[in-house]
Here is the input.
Amino acid sequence: MDYFIENTLTSYSAVIVMALVFLCLGRAIIGPSAPDRVVAINIIGTKTVVIIALISFYYSYHYYLDIAMVYALMAFIATIGVAKYMEKGALE
Amino acid sequence: MEVLLLIWEYIRNILTIILGVGGLFFLAVGVVGLYRLPDVYTRLHATTKCDTMGAGLVLLAVAFQSALPEAVKLIIIAGFIWVTNPTAAHVIAKAAWVTGFPPVKKFDHNYLKGESKK
Here is the structure.
């Protein structure tokens, strides 16, 4: 059971989440309006954090968790920035 | 004592499998909602909740298998996502509304004002 969790479940979960990221990217490409694309990019950011955490556990690179933290912050700031730009037409 | 540790190990593994598979299920449901729903606001409604729940569950599942410092870091990341994801959804919805994307179904925009006057 330890082998199943540490190898099979973790790697397959990372691959499945990566496939979901590509599906979200499809919505970001075909999305008819700008907010649809922003929604898709926001979701991709969250899923990337999950992938980084899974990879950090799979290879036991513990410092990847810091990268995941910074990535979550960056995705949040990017979403806020794009949404404010859409709303006001400028970043002030 | 050793028996207790063994039982704890077993419970931890079962919890990890349940939380991980549940988190993947929620992430997949969010993507299905992103594709099938007709509108910006409904897509936000589907993806934000499902994605926050799924990411939190998967991170919690990884935290159950890690040592203590990594588990604390993972829980901090999950809490950060739980705080920031609804905020981002709110900001996106407000931007879409101000920019003038109408919802699919028509309704009276002032119906909340009418209720507050009663």
User: Anything to note?
Assistant: The two ends of chain B are 65 Å apart (CA to CA). Chain B touches chain A through 46 residues (CB under 8 Å). Residues 2-36 of chain B form the longest helix (35 residues).
